[in-house]
Design brief:
Number of helices: 2
Largest sheet: 2 strands, antiparallel
Shape: rod-shaped
Helix content: over 70%
Radius of gyration: 23 Å
Order of helices and strands: HEEH
Number of strands: 2
Strand order of the largest sheet: 1-2
Structural class: mainly alpha
Oligomer: single chain
């Protein structure tokens, strides 16, 4: 393994970098998914609430009174934003997976005596 050609070592370095990137994307995706689930649950609860009953939300370290319509609007907007973010992360993960597969193929080819690149 010590006699790995420099071009294969470079490919291995790239592969490691992509693997680290994909781990970060997966972690971000999981955080966004948790936030999205929480926002959807909040939306369900707000929709069940009768009109005129005060709704409270947290703003930093404060709890602030809001109306049902305003709370619904804010949470729906948050859900939409999180869904867009989740889709972007999924596309990013897919592209990184494709790059990893291609690099792996190039490395295997080079180690078998083929030409990498």
């Amino acid at each position: 393994m010590q006699n790995i050609p420099p071009q294969v070592q470079a490919l291995l370095g790239q592969l490691e970098s992509y693997q680290q990137q994909i781990q970060l994307v997966i972690q971000q995706k999981q955080r966004v998914q948790v936030e999205l689930n929480d926002a959807k649950k909040a939306l369900e609860e707000i929709e069940k609430t009768e009109e005129g009953i005060p709704i409270y939300k947290t703003v930093g370290t404060l709890i602030v009174k809001s109306t049902k319509s305003k709370a619904l609007e804010e949470v729906k907007e948050k859900v939409e934003t999180l869904e867009v973010r989740l889709k972007a992360l999924e596309r990013q993960e897919q592209k990184l997976n494709e790059k990893i597969k291609e690099l792996t193929r190039q490395i295997q080819s080079a180690l078998r005596g083929g030409v990498a690149g």
